[in-house]
Specification:
The complex is a heterodimer of chains A (301) and B (461). Chain A is α/β, with parallel strands linked by helices and 301 residues long. Chain A folds into two domains: 183 residues, 3-Layer(aba) Sandwich (Rossmann fold); 110 residues, Rossmann fold, CATH 3.40.50. Helix content of chain A is 46%, strand content 12%. In chain A, helix 2 crosses helix 5. In chain B, 15% of the residues lie in helices and 47% in strands. By secondary structure, chain B is of the alpha+beta class. Chain B has a domain of 309 residues: Porin (Beta Barrel). The two termini of chain B are 42 Å apart. The longest helix of chain B is centred in the N-terminal third of the chain and has 44 residues. Chain B is globular. Classes of the chains: A alpha/beta (301), B alpha+beta (461). Chains A and B meet through helix 1, helix 3, helix 4, helix 5 and helix 6 of A and helix 1, helix 2, strand 7, strand 9 and strand 10 of B.
């Protein structure tokens, strides 16, 4: 009987102790945050990325497989600022997982750690897909990644206390490597300052803002609204007097409109990875910026 | 089984009894000491962590304060108004224009007792649809709640759904209570504005009058596996077709369902399920016309059991920028009703045994060939089966005294094309060849609009 009670005690202790040894499960909404969690958590985290880099993260199905991942997740890392509003609430609701509900330590929005651009003073749906909380496509400014990493390291330690020291050390290591890389990227970006560009959607805003390029126009007349023939003709006329050096296209964008415009205004289309995995070279967050700047510099020559 | 209980029994009893003996009292003390030690250790760890977090936060603020080359603009002050606690409101406006070759006034499903709900294509010419208003918000850290009101074109206000659900139960459990659409099958829970066609499949119309919702409780459990595996149970007042309000205490009717789902590669998500519903009906009346042409009211009393099998596949190519998608879904239902059928309850009042086994199914595919355009095709079929009516078998009445219950197999082919200028508006054209009635095929053209204003809703798979 003593053995039975001891066995029971041991079993309880094991159940309590188990999470300390096993890797925590993280559900990241995009490949960028998946990559960031891997950088900060190493083998202490088991990351599942909900979307593919070629998908439009705003329009994703709340697939059963994602609900299942939300059920077992210890931490959900989302962009926030309403980017995932069409599907993440369903995952949270259907998951039956109190650890990852908004407000709980297991729910982390990257934008909560950042200052957003394009925060509108008034919002109305006639303005297209405007985001009331600001532009949520934050990953293409490396300073945002640094700030997000800081907050995420703290959150990882909070969700997985036994490994707190590990996350702190790993976070510090990442920051050091990131600062070093940022110095390199800033130097590369200097050659691109004031370069006039045309974008498709307002999702390159952070990149354009960070580098200091000049955004002449957007191919979408309003966010999320495809251009009409009339609008495009007007754009060609407008750009005729001040042509762009390049047209920026994200890997996930349909090439049709940008190719059409490129032919008329005689500017090259630069394909950018936009997210980790968007191009074969953008294997991780470092690769994302290396490849983005390499492609921009090649087009600016 | 017997062996196991013979062994477990004494062990369990012993385990309960042993704490009073001296030797185990020592063990209990030892355990207590261990627990106390554990507690102390954890308290220490928490303090250490708090200090660490404080340090990290300090360094973070220092780093933020350090000059950067071009700092991002200052954040706008978050809204701190009492209205921040207002529930999110979304409003759906819908309507259609209908051109129908048959009189919609005498629509029925040949071979089926009328479900009394929203059946058929609706009226001719211009029609305002139901306007839907949904309020939703978190109640507190433990519940969320939602209210969906449906305003009929005539101005009648109905409560479509009004429920609260738990958000903080452990182990994948959630409980929903109030009035809600049942979670059986696939389409039942989905609101009209998110349907892929203007109307519900025939089987939903014939078996549930469109959709099945009742006042009751739902418990769901999601398994902690990478495969989506969900189990649900519901009960309620049993007052909705195929049941009737029985006026008795307790649980009336039961629904059990399970769903399983996952991915096939990067681009295909799927979900399949089996559901079972058991309801009781008492004097469930319907109108018919007997063989002499007299209008009569008949009624069914007995049990109604329904099985539902559903499967959905959705293909969204993950490595393409063309935003195409294809969705294939199908559901099969089989209903067995067993009890008695009373004929002309306001007159003759004859009654005898009744048993029917009926089924119905649909399969539909919707292809999004452009980010804003979709094309859909649906096939529907019902089989009224061979119904045994005691009054007919005994020779008291003729089969033609129950014309609505004569063997029949209604079917329909539907095509649809829709255009969605944005996530919030949709314009749709639908054309159907409907053989629900015994009469000629009803050729139905429906032009529909759906507008959503207010909060951005999230959609189920």
């Amino acid at each position: 009987m003593n053995a039975f009670i001891r066995g029971l005690g041991l079993a309880c202790a094991l159940i309590v102790a188990l999470p300390a040894n096993a890797a925590i499960k993280v559900l990241a909404t995009t490949s960028d945050w998946g990559s960031l969690v891997t950088e900060l958590g190493g083998d202490k985290v088991n990351v599942y990325t909900a979307t593919n880099p070629l998908q439009d993260v705003h329009r994703v199905d709340a697939k059963p497989s994602l609900v299942a991942r939300a059920r077992t997740a210890d931490l959900i890392v989302a962009t926030g600022a309403e980017l995932e509003i069409g599907w993440l609430p369903v995952l949270l609701q259907e998951s039956g997982n109190p650890r990852v509900q908004p407000g709980a330590p297991g729910y982390f929005e990257v934008t909560s750690a950042l200052r957003l651009l394009d925060v509108p003073t008034t919002v109305d749906r006639s303005m297209g897909d405007v985001h009331a909380l600001g532009n949520p496509h934050v990953q293409l400014d490396p300073r945002n990644i640094a700030a997000a990493a800081k907050a995420l390291s703290v959150r990882l330690a909070q969700v997985d206390p036994p490994n707190a020291a590990f996350y702190q050390q790993r976070g510090a290591d990442f920051q050091a490597r990131w600062q070093q890389a940022m110095a390199r990227w800033t130097a590369q970006a200097a050659t691109l300052k004031e370069v006039p560009v045309v974008v498709i959607h307002r999702d390159q805003t952070y990149l354009v803002h960070w580098i200091g390029m000049k955004e002449l126009a957007a191919i979408e007349p309003k966010p999320g609204v495809p251009p009409s023939a009339g609008y495009l003709a007007g754009l060609v006329a407008k750009l005729g007097t001040s042509p762009p050096r390049m047209i920026l296209r994200n890997a996930y964008n349909d090439p049709k409109a940008s190719d059409w415009l490129a032919e008329r205004v005689k500017a090259p289309v630069v394909l950018l990875p936009f997210s980790v995995g968007g191009t074969p070279e953008a294997k991780d967050l470092f690769g994302l910026f290396d490849d983005t700047l390499r492609r921009l510099q090649a087009a600016a020559k | 089984m017997g062996h196991v209980s013979r062994i477990i029994g004494p062990v369990a009893v012993a385990a309960l009894v042993t704490p009073v003996t001296g030797q185990t009292a020592d063990d209990v003390d030892a355990l207590r000491a261990e627990i106390a030690a554990l507690k102390a250790e954890y308290a220490q760890r928490v303090t250490a962590l708090e200090t660490r977090i404080d340090q990290l936060e300090t360094t973070a603020t220092v780093a933020a304060a350090a000059p950067v080359e071009s700092p991002p603009p200052a954040p706008s002050a978050p809204a701190r108004k009492s209205s921040a606690f207002n529930p999110s409101i979304s409003v759906i406006l819908a309507g259609n224009y209908a051109d129908l070759s048959q009189d919609p006034g005498d629509f029925n499903f040949a071979g089926f007792m009328p479900s009394g709900g929203e059946i058929g294509p609706g009226d001719r010419s211009f029609n305002l649809g139901e306007s839907e208003v949904t309020f939703a918000a978190s109640v507190d850290p433990y519940f969320t709640a939602a209210l969906t009101l449906a305003l009929s074109p005539e101005g009648e206000l109905g409560v479509e759904e009004a429920f609260a659900r738990t958000t903080s139960l452990p182990a994948g459990l959630s409980v929903k209570g109030g009035r809600f659409f049942s979670g059986f099958g696939y389409l039942n829970e989905i609101h009209a504005h998110a349907w892929d066609f203007v109307d519900q499949p025939l089987v939903y119309q014939a078996f549930y009058g469109g959709q099945f919702g009742q006042d009751g409780v739902q418990v769901k459990w999601l398994a902690p596996t990478d495969l989506f595996l969900e189990f649900g149970a519901e009960t309620g007042n049993g007052g909705e077709f195929p049941g009737t309000r029985l006026g008795r205490n307790g649980l009336n009717g039961a629904t059990l369902f399970t769903h399983v789902g996952g991915d096939l590669g990067d681009s295909i998500g799927w979900r399949a399920g089996v559901s079972w519903m058991d309801m009781d009906a008492e004097d469930r009346a319907y109108e018919d016309v007997d063989s002499l042409g007299n209008a009569v009211v008949n009624s069914f009393t007995g049990s109604s059991e329904t099985w539902v099998v559903d499967a959905t596949f959705k293909w969204t190519p993950a490595s393409s920028t063309r935003r195409q998608a294809f969705k294939l879904q199908a559901e099969f239902m089989r209903r067995t009703e067993d009890g008695s059928l009373a004929y002309d309850i306001e007159g003759a009042g004859l009654s005898d045994a009744y048993r029917s086994e009926q089924d119905g199914w649909y399969v539909q595919g919707v292809y999004q060939f452009n980010p804003r355009w979709r094309f859909g095709l649906r096939y529907d079929e019902l089989d009224a089966g061979s119904t045994r009516i005691g009054l007919v078998q005994s020779g008291d009445l003729l089969a033609s005294d129950f014309p609505l219950l004569l063997p029949a197999s209604p079917s329909r082919i539907t095509t649809m094309i829709d255009f969605s200028p944005s996530e919030f508006s949709r314009l749709r054209a639908q054309y159907a060849w409907d053989d629900s009635r015994d009469a000629e095929t009803d050729r139905q053209l429906l032009l529909q609009y759906i507008y959503a204003i207010g909060a951005h809703g999230a959609h189920k798979f």
